[in-house]
Amino acid sequence: ENGEPVDAKNRAVFLERFIHAEIYKARPDVNAVVHTHSPGVVPFSVSRKPLKPLYHNAAFLGDGAPVWDIGKEFGATDMLVRNNAIGRSLASALGDKSVVLMRGHGDVTVGPAVQAAVFRAYYTDVNAKLQAQALGLGSEVTYLSAEEAAKADGVNMVIMDRAWVLWKQKVQIGK
Fold first, then answer.
1. What is the mean pLDDT of residues 86-105?
2. What single string gives the DSSP state of each residue in 34-51?
3. Do residues 43 and 109 lie in contact, with contact meaning Cβ atoms separated by under 8 Å?
4. Is 90 exceeded by the pLDDT of residue 76?
5. For the chain, what are the domain ranges?
6. Which of 16, 22, 73, 148 is catalytic?
């Protein structure tokens, strides 16, 4: 409940537990949390360019991807979520969204199941890389409209198991 292990059994515990604990407390609809240090996403966490859905697989970004800045509330830190207070701040920034970017650090994605949280983590990174490429072309970028994003996300939530099965097969055969 508070991020402390019930029985660590002399094993190292991870700081990320405070991210998970506070998001689960704040969001009863969330059953899975993924935290990444995605190199594609980090530039959007430190710039004023918002991460927006560029294509259908990242439609969940249509609800927005807020940027959480640890320094605004906690001053100069090592950028890590080291306790429940910092975890609560991050969970608050996430709000009702599927993704929150962490300034200079990475991102957190959530979902009703692990498959959804992983799908969102993967496609947040892919979308960020594609968006950076599109912006680099120097012309205005056409993003998914709110209606397109909602419709595409509805489909993705139904068919994401196909991606999950493929990813599991790749891991199982080592490719």
1. 98
2. EEE--TTTHHHHHSS---
3. no
4. yes
5. 32-72+97-172
6. 16
